[in-house]
């Protein structure tokens, strides 16, 4: 026994096409907003790299062209505590370069060199924009927590420099003669 299939009317089909067009447009706009937000977070994290104690990647461990610019590790080591499951699952290392770009290093050789460096884009390496934003937001939160300690350490260094001022000779240096 065959069931009949009802074909949509031209108006119903036109309505469906219009809805799908709106969905596609919204998806594109949302992707652009997510990528802008990620770029803004990455730019902030580049400034926060000292407070976060981001480790520089040895330029000799990168492909020659990538080794010309500085890169900092965004995963591993002391940052494992804030890694999300999606970030932890990366088969490689997440890094930030001096141009505020998030990249993924993959295909590590036996001697620690990275053969592939790819710019992160939406859903690259199975990292959805929401997961990337969550991780970068966690790094920002960690920087906020660490900032007072970093400021105190700088203050202590400044006070040590100031304390040595009175030990310096007043006026021009005397030469032994």
Short description:
The chain is α+β, with helices and mostly antiparallel strands and 177 residues long. The chain has four helices and four strands, in the order ααβαβββα.
| Unreliable sequence segments | none
Mean pLDDT: 88
Alpha-carbon Rg, integer: 26 Å
Count of distinct strands: 4
Give the biggest sheet. 4 strands, antiparallel
Structural class: alpha+beta
Q: Outline, from the CA principal axes?
A: elongated
Helix content: 40-55%
First and last CA, distance: 118 Å
Question: Which series of helices and strands comes N to C?
Answer: HHEHEEEH
In percent terms, what proportion of residues is strand? 5-15%
What is the number of domains? 1
Number of helices: 4
Going across the major beta sheet, what is the strand order? 1-2-3-4
Pick out its properties.
177 residues; alpha+beta; 4-stranded antiparallel beta sheet; 4 helices; elongated
Explained architecture:
- By secondary structure, this protein is α+β, with helices and mostly antiparallel strands.
- The protein has one domain (about 15-155).
- The chain contains four helices and four strands.
- The chain has a four-stranded antiparallel β-sheet.
- β2 and β3 (about 100-110) form a beta hairpin.
- α1 packs parallel to α4 (about 130-165).
- The mean pLDDT is about 90.
